[in-house]
Amino acid sequence: MRHKGIQLQLVEGIPAKLSALLEQGELDIAIMSSADNFPERFDVTPLFRERFMLAFPAGHRLSQYDAIPIAAIDGEIYLRRVNCEYWDYLTDLCDAQGVNTIVSYSSEREDWIQNLVAGGLGICFIPEYSAVVPGLQVRPVAEPEVTREVCLVTVTGRRFSPAVSTFVGAVKSYGWATLPSRSH
User: Fold this and answer.
1) Contact predicate 93/146, CB 8 Å
2) What's this model's pTM, rounded to 2 decimal places?
3) Residue 184 has pLDDT above 60, yes or no
4) What does 104-158 look like in DSSP terms, one character per residue?
5) Under a CB-based contact definition with an 8 Å cutoff, are residues 56 and 99 in contact?
6) Could you give phi then psi for residue 17, rounded to 5 degrees?
7) Tally of CB atoms within 10 A around 58
8) 150 with 50: CB under 8 angstroms?
9) How far is Cα 20 from Cα 15, in angstroms, rounded to an integer?
10) Counting runs of H as helices and runs of E as strands, what totals does the chain give?
11) Given CA atoms 171, 31, 149, 12 in this order, what sign does their dihedral have?
């Protein structure tokens, strides 16, 4: 809002897709997280850390927990957010804990998944600072806690236009660390 002449185009995707777009010059910057390390050809500036939460409908049995142990979701119907960069990590974590979920629906649309969860059709993992639809309940994942670090990612050595430099400066100077934890 302070820089009226700058136009942004937002592109959603998993880290592999966003990384490829960065390398090809199709994106100037990416704000993303990865369960794996970023390639050395990128400059990575950590912005903030957030927990993963479990989202479920009002009245669900998981509402009894202040923090939900992974073991508690065994047998649950899971609604998959296709662009979740932690899908493989979370699946491996569940497998290691002997937890089986039943994936019944997948979508690239975050709002569709959340509305299906709010409507009682299953549960899903969701990052802590995500906007949530009305009727969705969330609790942090516990035993083990799962977190992600959201980073500003650029290609090492690539020169920025004045507009991109202004945006990068604004992102880096924002008070990310002061975000409060979401109450449930």
Assistant:
1) yes
2) 0.84
3) no
4) EEEES-HHHHHHHHHTTS-BEEEETT----TTEEEEEEESS--EEEEEEEEETTP
5) no
6) -65, -45
7) 11
8) yes
9) 8
10) 4, 8
11) positive
